[in-house]
Amino acid sequence: MRQKSIAVIVVAAGQGERASVNGDAVPKQYRPIGGKPVVARTVAAFLDVEAVSHVLPVIHADHDGNFAALDLADARLLPPVSGGASRQASVLEGLKALEPLQPDYVLIHDAARPFVPRALIEAVIAAIADNDGALPTLPVTDTIKRSPDGHMVAGTEDRRQLHAAQTPQGFSFERIFSAHRRAAQIERDFTDDAEIAEWAQLRVVMVPGDRDNIKITHPDDFNRAERLLQGDSRMETRIGIGYDVHSFAPGDAVWLGGVKIPHSAKLQGHSDADVALHALTDAILGAIGEGDIGVHFPPSDMQWRDAASTIFLRHAGELVRRRNGRIVNLDVTIVAEAPRIAGHAPAMCAVIAETLGITASRVAVKATTNEKLGFIGREEGIVAMASASVEVPRVD
What we know:
Number of helices: 12
Structural class: alpha/beta
Shape: elongated
Helix content: 25-40%
Radius of gyration: 25 Å
């Protein structure tokens, strides 16, 4: 079977004015991070993927000299083409330039995302094999307010249905090229290529994005990018451990890992008594030296009566973000004779990941019994143990 050809369009045609510092005239895509220009890092990320057949930069008409100064050399790197007046127009120019090559698939990526990981690129490529398009997304963790006038709140969006889009966005070349040509004929500004695909009624699937796949837009983003590059020299990894236990009480279901599981009893507690999320929350708080769950949500405070434990977990995750940290991985072990838990573990991982705004691959949930020993063996309650690995800026 013939190997599919995959072309990449790196969109670098903007002026980058929002990222300028003190009137710096160098466009953001040509400014260095760790001694290497942004766009050079972006191009290199795709050339590092063996499945990629061609990489086509789309640049501003006035930036020929800037791009030539990068001195990039690779047989798969095509000569840059000039973009248009908008991102949408620039992508169309790139698609036109690729037409003679007739690639099977095309990935469209913002040059201002220089840290796109190989695994993410490969995940998008794999997803478009069975779909018209694919894009990486991250779950939205903040509460989103709607305000038509930018002043008064008019409503609150359901963030469970909201996802932040990243690039690269991958498509069948012919289908997205056709959609772009038709979109150019109407008076509408599309925010990204996936929106054009949606408008053209193409089938677009989401794949998990990556928190480090940041887009450099404002001056402070360069500082964050430098921190990402410096990695271990500026960051340190901390480990937290959590333990919780709840006894059974009359009821018909238990909450574990944010999932309601039918059972002949419930867990006794002030909140929903989700022993797994309580242990996990304590583990995260412990990793960043923020005490335990009782410090932040005292059981004496009636506002937390029957509260969902995802509230506690989300708060712990927000404290990590406030420290400019990130959650590396989480591991939860639930010890119970009943109910049977293993079959619910994937759903628990998904709830935990969505609550914290991380990928499910960073979460592990395991279950075991106590071999009929002790109060657990007598089915009087459930124990959960958790560990959290958190990366935060180093404090000397």
